[in-house]
Backbone:
């Protein structure tokens, strides 16, 4: 048998050589054509993505913190985010597979899916993409050196109060912002590493440091930046006292508290030995929707991809509350004493107040976070109050006999009376989401 096969191969060899010699030029030409067409298609796709898709938060622009403008002539301060340069995330590279679809080669989430970056999401969801660029969520986390904050602080001083001393600020040769304190004990200076907050209320600073054991601790700086480029005491630091020389710069954070702090201001981040790895700054699309690689693959295969993340048919108000409350806080995040006494500081934790509201409990699943707040569109200004009151009147309409009607002001002042803005110091106010008839 083996001998027969060898003889066959010998006799077929001239024929195979003849066939290959005859068709080899055709095969080579075909391969070259395929290669050229592939390159042309890729180039056309890249050009279409670059030209037809204009990113208002382009990575070609430097990430900048909010520059707080002065008050206007009528005394009303404009929304500081109107002049913000929105942050962006670079779309992950190396996404193509044999089908020409994305197969996320960026950061991998817990599900095994990968993050594709907000610009890829914007290929289809352009309206939400453009609106989100001006939302507070789009600018929640910055490296200070990449912002204009060093220019704002350079040359300024601030009295931190007894046991703290006078802070003085300057820029180093690399453009970093440095805080200095006079005193006999080190450290005499500390770099302001990260800025947290959109700037609509404030931006607070964080500095990470690695411990000898490889852990990470942080200092939340005692001084924050407020509207009008004003330096002020960080909210919550008023009654604090330092237990060490390092704590003269601010309050120490570590462990779960530090991780939650960074988690809620970023889309992806891993704290490692004094720095942040795998950083996707700000609260972008995939923070709420999850890693988008499989959704992108499905969308590019079909004009009608399956519902994704918060678009699922099973999504209800409880799912939404859990999602928003993951960072805006739920009852499990606070003490039983706080739940009972409901101090003014709890107005920052909107889901906690909402869960106590009869409007929520008796709305038959209709009242949810997005009834009043869009996760994509930032609503601030004189028209916002009237828009929110319309939401109230939908359930408290005096033309409907079955509705509960306010006997004092059935069509105006709903928010001011039942959800007033509570002062949190330094001019910051949050509306109380425990909707009720107040004393």
Residues:
């Amino acid at each position: 048998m083996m001998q027969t096969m060898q003889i066959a191969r010998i006799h077929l060899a001239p024929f195979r050589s003849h066939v290959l010699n005859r068709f080899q030029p055709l095969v080579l030409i075909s391969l070259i054509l395929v290669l050229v067409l592939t390159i042309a298609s890729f180039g056309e796709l890249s050009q279409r993505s670059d030209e037809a898709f204009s990113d208002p938060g382009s990575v070609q622009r430097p990430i900048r913190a909010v520059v707080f403008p002065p008050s206007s002539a009528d005394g009303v301060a404009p929304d500081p985010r109107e002049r913000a340069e929105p942050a962006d995330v670079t779309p992950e590279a190396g996404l193509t597979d044999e089908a020409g679809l994305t197969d996320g080669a960026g950061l991998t989430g817990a599900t095994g899916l990968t993050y594709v970056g907000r610009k890829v999401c914007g290929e289809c969801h352009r309206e939400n993409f453009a609106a989100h660029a001006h939302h507070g969520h789009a600018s929640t986390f910055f490296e200070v050196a990449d912002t204009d904050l060093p220019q704002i602080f350079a040359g300024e001083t601030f009295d931190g109060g007894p046991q703290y001393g006078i802070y003085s600020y300057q820029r180093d040769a690399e453009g970093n912002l440095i805080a200095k304190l006079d005193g006999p004990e080190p450290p005499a200076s500390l770099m302001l590493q990260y800025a947290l907050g959109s700037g609509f209320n404030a931006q607070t600073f964080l500095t990470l440091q690695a411990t000898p054991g490889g852990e990470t601790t942080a200092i939340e700086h005692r001084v924050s930046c407020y509207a009008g480029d004003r330096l002020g005491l960080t909210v919550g630091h008023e009654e604090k006292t330092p237990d060490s020389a390092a704590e003269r710069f601010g309050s120490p954070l570590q462990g779960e508290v530090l991780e939650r702090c960074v988690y809620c201001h970023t889309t992806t981040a891993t704290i490692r030995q004094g720095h942040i790895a795998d950083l996707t700054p700000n609260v972008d699309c995939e923070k709420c929707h999850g890693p988008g690689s499989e959704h992108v693959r499905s969308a590019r295969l079909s004009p009608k991809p399956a519902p994704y993340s918060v678009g699922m048919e099973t999504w209800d108000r409880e799912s939404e509350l859990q999602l928003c409350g993951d960072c805006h806080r739920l009852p499990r995040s606070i003490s039983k004493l706080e739940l009972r006494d409901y101090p003014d500081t709890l107005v920052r934790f909107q889901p906690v107040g909402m869960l106590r509201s009869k409007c929520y409990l008796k709305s038959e699943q209709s009242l949810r976070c997005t009834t009043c707040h869009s996760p994509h569109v930032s609503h601030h200004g004189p028209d916002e109050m009237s828009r929110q009151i319309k939401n109230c009147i939908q359930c408290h309409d005096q033309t409907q006999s079955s509705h509960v009607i306010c006997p004092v002001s059935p069509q105006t002042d709903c928010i001011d009376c039942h959800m007033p803005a509570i002062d949190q110091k330094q001019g910051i106010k949050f509306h109380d989401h425990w909707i009720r008839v107040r004393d």
Remarks:
- Residues 328-431 form one domain.
- The CA atoms of residues 156 and 169 lie 6 Å apart.
- The chain has three domains: 44-138+287-315, 142-281, 328-431.
